[in-house]
């Protein structure tokens, strides 16, 4: 047999085989015919290998002595050897009964090095590339790694990063693989524009999406990093925005992101077709399932005739009806909305049709992509489990719950056929995101005991140890204040939807008329009663100390301080029948003038401290807010009571309530109106009656324009608190004209009214302000949703006040809605 040689290099698998030529003369023509032959191989000889054992190579080839080997068998053996990634060249030749395999082994990677990177650490880049130390070197793999590194830089907003790779021989057939990186500048988003929108302006639509045009705060907020998946997410946000505002025919025609290399910036253009705006027409429920009483289901409807069409309200109604019929024993009933558009009147009639669905069961729930979050944290958001009836509506509700956790970048749920025709596999794919936050904030508060510069640092983890638990540690520092807090919440206590947790705190304040030190904590548990109503009960413990290291400033019987040189020796005042004590001037000489403390009531309470308050409390919260962080529509109502007297020094019942209604006054200009009201009462439960520090102390927290503790009963000018309060306010907020909304600034106009009244010390010398006299103010505000937390500046002018009130027209500090 003639020798045949087969050569295959890494660049391409091209076989060169010798052929047996049979030439036959027929007239003047010659014909060459290639014939594949097979021959018996008696021995397989391996040459050129250094690290890989010859027996291992023979095993990869799958050719054994005594086997008839054809050219196709040799081709397959070459392919198998190349697929191992161990060889850069393989050649097979056959001489007689010997099959000779000549191999060139790939070089071994000694080190993988990165040069020029500072924005992405080596550890992160190592996780992105496939080339690894002690692995076989492959040029194809390193080229793929170059693209992976480019993608990593694109993900952090550096699309113009340049990456190259080279090797360095270090002997013994080993190489160092070196990736050279030029990180370049941040790739910005120069503009985001919309085409085809008329119902909403560009500035309003920019608030709907997450991507932002680059600005002065972009380096902190990091919301100007373009990525195609982020643009797709923003498209879905736009659809939901329009669908929930009556535009049922809305569609996105195109969304284009053009990169200008000269500016290293993207230009985003989204073209939309808004369509007509619809309202709900006739709304009905129809059932083909025997035993379902449709008349009893109308209370579950979120959609009402005449209201603006909203896809969210349709979805909420589907969930309500599905849960209701499932709880009634119809596990396989399916609720389907059927819409009937009236193009003339621009209405959509909705029929909720209840049919008997196919009998399908959940075989298993398969979770993929979670590297930190435990499986059970994801599974518990499902109202269905293995073996239950499959219901698509409840599965979609679980998807919404998982997204609301804010643990994941994306959540997708799909289904696959199970082992039996009536079995369904639910597949949950998640992409996790960072859930830990380090927050640093600062500002300046005005008015009252906490006046001065303030700073706060906190560490928050919303998915502690992947268990879905919330933990926060924070510390706050002011000119005269210190506070430390630890909070922990388990959202699924005992495997149920019970949010249990505790808070521990310590706070000191050395400003104002007296010093305070509070140490305490609480243990709480909250349970959802309905989708909007939540109940919470708690046990609270607090120890309070009051005093003044410098003694108490005193006045004469007319309330006049005699040259600011009269002080009481507090060590002598406590326990004395008349708390005047030994009086000294600033030089330590006796002062015999008839001097009195500012507030004997406060002085007596301070002398009796420390106080311990042991109480239980409960509260009910009703919320229909469309967004808890930045509400534009809905109610937030909260009421509760606290009962003190389980040991300790306090014995009281304290009742409070508050509520706020938000409404979007103008969609185009994003003007949000809100109305707030609140009230409270504290009464004794016996014992020695109310302590002065059990009272409410109010001021700018209910009527802006007054100091903290600026209104209500006083003795000799010192606040002693009140037993009742009531307040109301109206406010409108709006984006500032000529300022980009991306900066987070909003203006506000407001009016407040309220009062603090009632005291057990009414009739004592120097006590005034116990009547329910109304205070009112009006003003303007500037709100900034800064990267350090919400900040707010207010200017409020009190136009109804009492002579003894303490006003503070200008205030600046942290903003909080609730």
Automatic annotation (TrEMBL):
| InterPro entries, A to Z | Bac_surfAg_D15 (IPR000184), BamA/TamA_POTRA (IPR010827), D15-like (IPR039910), OM_assembly_BamA (IPR023707), POTRA (IPR034746)
One BP term from GO: Gram-negative-bacterium-type cell outer membrane assembly
Q: Which UniProt keywords apply?
A: Cell outer membrane, Membrane, Repeat, Signal, Transmembrane, Transmembrane beta strand
Q: Where is the protein situated, by its record's location annotation?
A: Cell outer membrane; Membrane
Q: What's a single GO CC term here?
A: cell outer membrane
Q: Specify the superkingdom.
A: Bacteria
The secretion signal range is 1-22
The UniProt record lists the keyword Ribosomal protein: no
**Primary location recorded for the protein, binned into one broad class:** membrane
Could you tell me which Pfam families the record lists for this protein?
Omp85 (PF01103), POTRA (PF07244)
Ranges for the POTRA domain?
A: 39-106, 107-184, 187-275, 360-433
Q: Which Gene3D superfamilies match?
A: membrane protein fhac (3.10.20.310), membrane protein fhac: a member of the omp85/tpsb transporter family (2.40.160.50)
Query: Which function does this protein serve?
Result: Part of the outer membrane protein assembly complex, which is involved in assembly and insertion of beta-barrel proteins into the outer membrane.
This protein's assembly is summarised as: Part of the Bam complex.
* PANTHER family (alphabetical): OUTER MEMBRANE PROTEIN ASSEMBLY FACTOR BAMA, SORTING AND ASSEMBLY MACHINERY SAMM50 PROTEIN FAMILY MEMBER
Q: Which family does the record claim for this protein?
A: Belongs to the BamA family.
**Protein name per UniProt:** Outer membrane protein assembly factor BamA
Organism field: Aurantimonas aggregata
